[in-house]
Amino acid sequence: MKFKPPSFLDGIESPVDGEKAMRKYARENRPLDLFSAPVPENAAEGSDASNPVIVVGIDEVGRGPLAGPVVACAAVLKSPDALLTLNDSKKLTRAKREAMFENVKDACVCYAIASASVEEIDRMNILEADFLAMRRALQSLGMPGINESAPEIPVEVKGSFADALGAPLSSLVSPLSLQNSLLIAVDGNLKIRGVPPESQIPVVKGDGRIASISAASILAKVFRDRYMDKLAEKYPGYGFEVNAGYGTKLHLDGIRKLGFTPEHRKSFHPKL
User: Fold this and answer.
1) What's the number of domains the chain is made of?
2) Helix (H, G, I), strand (E, B), or coil: what is residue 258?
3) Sheet containing 108-116: which strands, arranged edge to edge?
4) How far apart are CA 69 and CA 226, in angstroms?
5) Is 158 part of a structural domain of the chain?
6) What is the pTM of this model?
7) CA–CA dist 61, 136 (Å, integer)
8) Is residue 2 situated within a structural domain?
9) What pLDDT, in 10s, does the model give residues 84-111?
10) 241 inside domain
11) Domain containing 48: what range?
12) DSSP 3-state helix, strand, coil percentages of the chain (rounded to 5)?
């Protein structure tokens, strides 16, 4: 089922304003009595005793390439305006994304970058592999109810949802209370399969409308680009360092000359 952007984002023109609107919605629609003990004063914004909620931005990169994994990132910002230059990663040059990478990490109270392999993409299709990478990212941050295997590429993680709450998970009324404290802003028009639908809001073009999705977009893109650089060293002649596995002329010429590598998706074979 495809979803339209929520009405509370109507008229939003910047990722920071979108993040603020998303957090306001989350606070106003949060469940009550999540905690069995007071939340410390150092809780992240939007996560104090009266508003124990976390907005999680999640995005993926790598759905369209002929080679390489799909990569997803889940990110929670310290505040809506933690990094004012956040925007859709596709609107930024690679040099700009690389320059922002560490600052984006610093702007997050927690994040996780996960992936699904070429083999998994071929076995389950790209959309399901995309959802798998997203679930792995959420699981790595401590979301209950997810039990996925470890990905082929190790997950890169900073912190957890407990850090975003500013309180130990043991202070929650129950482990599943954490699930009720999360609002996941998903880039696109679909909800993540295998994650409670009531915890999610899809946002079309969300990487340019919600700051936490923008952060996730940049982290996932830089992570995957760097991985493709390593594949370019292992498999020269395909231009992975410049095309990130997409079907450019250089890449197609490399396939014609050298054939397919183990990193090529069998279900994505182009007409040569």
Assistant:
1) 1
2) helix
3) 156-158, 108-116, 70-77, 54-61, 182-187, 200-203
4) 12
5) yes
6) 0.90
7) 15
8) no
9) 888 777 888 999 999 999 999 999 999 9
10) no
11) 7-235
12) 45, 15, 40
192 in Cβ contact with 200 (< 8 Å): yes
Can you tell me the distance from the alpha carbon of 249 to that of 270, in angstroms, rounded to the nearest whole number? 12
245 and 68 in contact (C-beta within 8 Å)?
Answer: yes
Instruction: Extract the tokens encoding 268.
Output: 């994505």
**Can you tell me the distance from the alpha carbon of 167 to that of 202, in angstroms, rounded to the nearest whole number?**
27
The HSE-up count of residue 39 (CA atoms within 13 Å, CB side) is 24
Percent of the chain at pLDDT > 70 equals: 87
Phi-psi label, residue 244: left if phi above 0, alpha if psi -120 to 50, beta otherwise: left
Structure confidence by residue, pLDDT tens digits, 33-78:
444 334 444 444 444 444 567 999 999 999 999 999 999 999 999 9
Q: Give the start-end residues of each E strand in the chain.
A: 54-61, 70-77, 108-116, 156-158, 182-187, 200-203
Residue owning tokens 């060293």: 233
Q: Classify each residue of 241-269 as buried b or exposed e, where b means 16 or more C-beta atoms within 10 Å of its C-beta.
A: eebbbbebeebbebbeeeeebebbbeebe
Bridge-based pairing state of the strands 200-203 and 182-187: parallel
CATH code for the domain in which residue 185 is found: 3.30.420.10
In a domain, 257, yes or no: no
How would you classify the pairing of strands 108-116 and 70-77? antiparallel
